Amino acid sequence: MARLLNRGRVAEQLARIPDSMKRVVQQQGDIEARYLANAVRAAAPVGTDLEHHPGELRDSVHAEAGKRALSWRVVIDAKDVRGHCYARHVEFGHMAKGGVHVAPVPFAYPTKRIEWPGMKKRLKRAGREGARLAAPELMARYR
């Protein structure tokens, strides 16, 4: 696994970001995560061979906060009878019980690839807006 050089310096710089700026970006990030989760949910197949109840995979898509500040995840956590997640088997294809290959039905990654440029643009705009709001606070710090 790659290590981040100068981790302390980067953490120090991130800690200096004003709370007002973090708040604006956090709000927009929450909106974007929910938006992506809804788009993936709309693209998810219904009635795959691994589902016990039609729509189970679609209904399991949700957004949650990431492990770090200003991070988010879209989670698809539909489980089979043994408690194993099966979304990746639908996304990438799998072998059925009889040894027959079941074709992939990509729904999560293509949706993310399509939606990402707009999400990135809106997050950057939120960062600029947050910087504008935080500018008086930052200028007062260095006077």
Please characterize this protein's 3D structure.
The protein has 143 residues and is mainly α. It is 55% helix and 10% strand. The chain has helices spanning 7-15, 19-43, 56-59, 87-92, 108-141; strands at residues 61-65, 72-76, 94-95, 101-102. The strands form 2 sheets. The protein has a two-stranded antiparallel ribbon with strand order 1-2. A two-stranded antiparallel sheet has the order 3-4. A hairpin with a 5-residue loop joins β3 and β4.
Could you estimate the helical fraction of the residues in percent? 40-55%
Number of strands: 4
Q: Which residue ranges are poorly predicted, with pLDDT under 50 across at least 5 consecutive positions? A: none
> What proportion of the residues form beta strands (DSSP E)?
5-15%
Judging from the principal axes of the Cα atoms, what is the shape? elongated
> Measured on Cα atoms, how large is the radius of gyration?
20 Å
Q: What letter string, H or E per element, gives the SSE order?
A: HHHEEHEEH
Average pLDDT for all residues: 88
The rounded distance between the terminal residues' Cα atoms is: 42 Å
Describe the protein's topology.
Elements: H1 7-15, H2 19-43, H3 56-59, E1 61-65, E2 72-76, H4 87-92, E3 94-95, E4 101-102, H5 108-141
Antiparallel strand pairs: 1-2, 3-4
What would the keywords be for this entry?
two-stranded antiparallel sheet, 143 residues, two-stranded antiparallel ribbon, mainly alpha, elongated
How would you summarize what this structure contains?
This protein is mainly alpha-helical. It is built from five helices and four strands; from the N terminus they run H-H-H-E-E-H-E-E-H.
